[in-house]
Specification:
The strands form six sheets. A four-stranded mixed β-sheet has the order 8-11-7-12. Strands 3-14-6 form a three-stranded antiparallel β-sheet. 43% of the residues lie in helices and 12% in strands. By secondary structure, the chain is an alpha/beta fold. The chain has two domains: 54-177 and 362-414, D-Maltodextrin-Binding Protein, domain 2, CATH 3.40.190.10; 186-357 and 494-558, Periplasmic binding protein-like II (D-Maltodextrin-Binding Protein, domain 2, 3-Layer(aba) Sandwich), CATH 3.40.190.10.
């Protein structure tokens, strides 16, 4: 669907942001010494080169980028470099473009008994592969061949990432790691409008309501027209995991409602967050705001959810810390007088900022049972993770950077596996390092290359505001987005379950449709607030109760 493609585009933007994730200093095997020295696997099992070439067949997700003539998805500067430093030949057993097509290919591979040697799978696919005994136990291989860098990144999750890929004390997959900073939803506001109308920064729901009212009634842009928007919106209402633009997750979280997450209720029972009574309060508030015009009356009809922001008509929207990368860079390029700031708002009645968190991991690199060299898959992961985090000491990395710059792509697009690993607090680490450098507590020259780039962009933006919009988006995202996250105490809530149960296969699509339509229709006034109670009853009757029993059993058995 078109909306899915838009979110994929945003994912690519976020992937670019995360390419700047903090790189940690300190040596591990193969990270120091002669740059282009060839070390045998016998001397360095982590980064050493095989004496004899090893072949691994993989399932590959085709990127959107285009290669130069003569290059292919499995034969290009990135793949050739990784082969040179490992002597591992990667062959694409099959390729698929896009998440949906790739997931279908994986499902077909599982059903057809024709698995590639390695591939990235979802949580549900991992469980199915374990059930069918089709993938390798990687416990001893990871202990022996996993790099200290990757192990440290997994440790940053307090063991949760590896635990989610471990069953009966056996490690069946190597998980990705979600960045903590990507979970909270912040409130981005036109600071220049606040200043013009002499309004204070918001904390409560009432503060946001007052600001929205002023933004639609008091001509904050000074053009003499009543054409500005208080708060924008997203027709899906909430995202439930990682935020995108205009979702109302923060409003629901303020009421301690966590739609689209499985949570523990006040009586200690597992419930689906969207049917909790607290949702009714959030929906009533949003319906009132919509009726009074505080929320964009066209939010459900906008071609793109960020259109009002880019057009310069919006005064507030909810979004992630990286919103300056998109859509704000576009909006501010069109109106350089606009100033956007992020706020941890609204707070709940006790003055706390409450937010749901994304799953620690949701994808796993698995190895076909019977494959002769499971360690080769781990060695590839070591190699491109070190490369991605700016720790590869080889001089030839510069050529890869030239290749990426020439085509306007990220080198990660051609790694053998779409699995990025980083410290869970990578963004906060970078912010802290930049802050130390700005305050003279750290020599900027000691920063890793990527962090130093953020530092330089930050300084340049202060000296010459909005002269370089590429630098502007990084500087603003870190100063105001990450700055708020780093300085705000949060009550973080995680879902107790992220998988799929047996009954979900038959009922979940209809239940989600019922939920999405009910929430949206209540907000825009097509349904009364009492429709929420009817939705809850229908949700339970149409399979929700059975799914809840299944989820409860799975969670209880996992303890």
């Amino acid at each position: 669907m078109k909306l899915t493609k838009l979110f994929l585009s945003l994912s690519l933007i976020l992937a670019f942001v995360l390419s700047l994730s903090a790189c940690q200093s300190g040596a591990e095997s193969g990270e120091e010494g002669s740059l282009d020295e060839i070390v045998s696997i016998q001397d360095d099992p982590i980064y050493g080169v095989y004496d004899n070439q090893v072949v691994v067949r993989v399932g590959f997700m085709i990127p959107d980028s285009k290669l130069m003539a003569g290059d292919t998805n499995d034969n290009n500067p990135v793949t050739r470099y990784l082969e040179e430093i490992t002597n591992i030949k990667v062959i694409h057993a099959w390729e698929a473009k896009g998440d949906e097509a790739y997931a279908q290919k994986v499902d077909l591979a599982i059903d057809s008994e024709d698995l590639p040697d390695a591939m990235v799978v979802t949580r549900n696919q991992l469980m199915e592969l374990i059930k069918q005994d089709k993938i390798e136990n990687l416990t001893t291989f990871f202990e022996q061949y996993g790099s200290e860098l990757i192990k440290e990144m997994y440790d940053s999750t307090q063991g949760v990432a590896l635990a989610e890929a471990t069953f009966n004390h056996k490690l069946y997959g190597l998980p990705n790691v979600a960045i903590n900073a990507d979970s909270p939803t912040l409130l981005w506001i036109r600071q220049d409008w606040l200043d013009r109308l002499n309004l204070q920064a918001p904390q409560s729901l009432e503060d946001i309501e007052e600001i929205a009212k002023a933004f639609i009634e008091r001509d904050p842009d000074g053009d003499g027209k009543m054409d500005t928007i208080g708060l924008t919106g997203y027709k899906g209402v909430v995202y439930g995991t990682k935020p995108q633009m205009n979702g109302y997750d923060a409003i629901f979280n303020t009421y301690h409602a966590f739609p689209k997450n499985w949570v523990i209720d006040h009586e200690g029972n597992i419930i689906y967050g969207s049917i909790a009574p607290e949702n009714k309060e959030a929906l009533a508030k949003l319906a009132d705001w919509y009726k009074r015009g505080l929320i964009d009356k066209q939010f459900a009809l906008n071609k793109e959810t960020w259109d009002p922001i880019i057009a310069g008509r919006a005064g507030m929207f909810f979004g992630p810390w990286w919103a300056p990368y998109w859509p704000l860079v576009k909006a501010v390029s069109g109106d350089t007088k606009s100033e956007w700031r992020a706020f941890a708002a609204p707070l709940d009645v006790e003055g706390k900022f409450v937010t749901h968190m994304a799953p620690v991991t949701d994808r796993y690199l698995v190895v076909r049972k019977g494959y002769e060299h499971p360690e080769a898959v781990i060695k590839l992961l070591n190699a491109f993770t070190r490369l991605e985090r700016g720790l590869d000491p080889n001089k030839k990395v510069a050529k890869l950077e030239e290749f990426a710059a020439q085509l306007g792509i990220q080198t990660r697009a051609y790694y053998p596996f779409d699995l990025l690993i980083d410290y869970s607090d990578a963004i906060e680490k970078r912010y802290a390092a930049v802050q130390q450098a700005l305050h003279g507590k750290l020599d900027p020259e000691t920063l890793d290359a990527n962090t130093r780039q953020i530092y330089n962009q930050w300084v340049a933006e202060k000296e010459n505001p909005k002269k370089d919009m590429e630098g502007w988006k990084s500087a603003i995202a870190y100063e105001y987005g990450v700055g708020i996250l780093a300085s705000t105490p949060m009550e973080q809530v995680r879902s107790v379950y992220y998988g799929t149960t047996l009954s979900m296969n038959d009922n979940w699509a209809n239940l989600e449709k019922l939920e999405n339509e009910t929430f949206l229709n209540i907000i825009v006034g097509d349904l009364p607030i009492s429709a929420f109670d009817e939705f809850v009853a229908d949700w339970k009757r149409l399979g929700g109760d059975q799914i809840t029993r299944e989820v409860t059993k799975i969670v209880e058995n996992s303890k």
